[in-house]
Request: fold
Amino acid sequence: MIIAEELFARKGAVKLAVWRKRPVSQSDHPVVVLVHGSSTSARPTFDLAVPGKAEYSMMDWFTARGFDCWAMDHEGYGRSTVTQSNSDVRCGVEDLRHLIPLIEERTGRKRVLMYGLSSGALRAGAFAAACPDAVERLALDAFVWTGEGSPTLAKRKEGVEQFRSQARRPISEAFIESIFTRDYPGLYEPEVAKACAAAQLSYGDSVPSGTYLDMTTALPQVDPAAVRSPTLIVRPQHDGVATVEDLLAFFARLPSADKQFVMIPGLTHASTFGIHRRRMWHAVLSFFSAGALGTG
Reply:
């Protein structure tokens, strides 16, 4: 059985909506923070319900395996306060700084496991570099380092002036569905794209533009040498946001000996929604669980 609750972290005048799911037992469960990307907020990304389809909630899957899962809407997303900020990667790092005290208040834990998807991986990686004592183990999925050779980012650069001049950018059902199909066809169920779009558009028809601006004009956002946490890099097989060479160069510069690079076949950039999503979940679960293994 799972307990779900909505909480709010405070960042000055900004209320950051936090969705938590945990096992009903009162035992000490490892805490996982799930960090969303640029175009869909926390619950559409990590706790999606698809009519007639099973197991599209990453939160439910991890909670069923004994984890206490937290997912926050970053400033300007979902149920969090909408401001004049474009909610760039640096803003996301500050959001995470203000989430950790709430987690400690509720669980007693000062260190968390952290998973980031797409620009959520940029936020998570930058946070781990800035606050190394807060991140026990780090998983970066659909990550990008320099962006060199990325066809998706080359195309996205056509919108740079709009991203610079407007703090928010429009989204639509067609746009959200395009995230599912742009890298490779046939690796998603159509009902899932529609359910994700409906869930996200229930919050409005725009999202902040800051991470798009960062990814097209200000990479790299994460210094691998500053990331001291054990780190997993998850590379979906088909992902136009980054080349394998870009990610391997980042991986080679990570200082921790406790690191893994995993390529998941049959997945594209939006890996949490793919028909092979459980392969990614299993890789992250294995990496997170390894930290608790003994040496005897």
Q: What stands out?
A: The chain has a mean pLDDT of 97. The longest strand covers residues 2-11. The first helix runs from residue 42 to 46. The two ends are 33 Å apart (CA to CA).
